[in-house]
Design goal:
- This protein has 311 residues and is an alpha+beta fold.
- It has a domain of 126 residues.
- Helix content is 36%, strand content 17%.
- It is built from ten helices and 13 strands.
- Helix 3 packs across helix 10 and helix 4 packs across helix 5.
- The longest helix has 18 residues.
Length: 311
């Protein structure tokens, strides 16, 4: 066995990881390194010169960071004193939480397959539960927002219930047996991207327009035997399998890809979060869709998420 430098551990060639925790700690060892990353990425390639937007300048100037009692995260133009704030316009703006913790939280959310709970993030970062929940909510809704580009090629579509058993609620006139579980419509390219969204009811009026908008005309659509999909045969080459008859695969005709995504989503919710309210379900869908869509990228999902935060 070749000698190993314990002070500089390397990621094994056989590892599926594209960005390990040791690489993260080397690149972002503290809050100053994270702030410097934002400054160089957003404003200054060399860390010293940047464009000054002040009316008296409007040209490239030298910027320096001065220590202040308020610990401002800003660089000042040496010519006019105009300040540039690297965190302005990002999810880190006006946050008293360390950038190092923000970055590490993003790393944890992208490096796990089935997600991490806000309670676990609280323990990992040493912050309050309220802070951990706010961080995760901003990351899901601002940085993991789903791509609205239409899917194309071989696309599978299916809908599923998310949640536990239907519950009966008592009313003054008796018992109301309405099902309160949300319905999620999913569409996935075989070997590509997935899109998932909540729909109010699994009827033609709710599913048809979303599929027509979310799938490029001329694509091949695979589904189960639900009647609404059959009405779109004129727009797509449509093939379906009859699950009610016990048929799940017939050659290339199946919905196993979207079923695999449902399995990851439901097992993650059941095992990590245990339950998700209808109010926040859309943000959790964003998280699982983001991880699925970046699973095969050459760039690690954390670095992609960081690039979105900078934009």
């Amino acid at each position: 066995m070749p000698p190993v430098d314990r002070n500089k551990p390397k990621r094994a060639a056989s590892s599926e990881s594209r960005y390990s925790v040791m690489e993260f700690m080397r690149e972002f060892p503290d809050d100053a390194a994270c702030l410097d990353f934002l400054w160089r990425t957003r404003y200054s390639d060399d860390g010293e010169h940047a464009y000054c937007p002040a009316p008296s300048c409007r040209r490239e100037r030298t910027f320096k960071r001065y220590a202040t009692a308020q610990q401002r995260q800003s660089w000042s133009c040496t010519a006019c004193g105009h300040k540039l704030h690297p965190t302005a316009g990002t999810i880190f703006h006006k946050s008293s939480t360390s950038l190092h913790l923000w970055f590490y939280g993003m790393f944890l959310m992208t490096s796990t397959r089935c997600g991490i709970s806000a309670k676990q993030l609280e323990r990992e970062l040493g912050v309050t539960y309220k802070t951990a929940w706010r961080m995760m909510n901003l990351i899901r809704n601002e940085l993991m927002e789903q791509d609205e580009r239409p899917l194309e090629g071989d696309v599978e579509a299916d809908e599923t219930w998310i949640g536990g058993r239907p519950r009966a609620h008592g009313t003054k006139r008796g018992t109301d047996h309405r099902i309160e579980k949300p319905i999620v419509l999913g569409m996935v390219e075989r070997g590509g991207r997935v899109h998932a969204e909540i729909i109010p009811f699994s009827g033609a009026g709710d599913i048809r327009p979303r599929v027509l908008e979310g799938v490029k005309a001329g694509s091949t659509l695979y589904s189960d035997s639900f009647q609404v999909y059959r009405t779109m045969a004129g727009t797509f080459d449509h093939y379906w399998v009859d699950h009610s008859a016990g048929v799940y695969v017939s050659g290339d005709v199946h919905t196993q890809t979207i079923e695999g995504f449902w399995s990851t989503l439901k097992n993650g919710i059941r095992g990590t979060y245990h339950a998700v309210s209808v109010k926040w379900l859309a943000s959790y869908l964003n998280e699982y869709v983001y991880r699925y869509n970046t699973r095969m990228d050459e760039t690690d999902p954390f670095l992609t998420l960081l690039a979105r935060a900078v934009r």
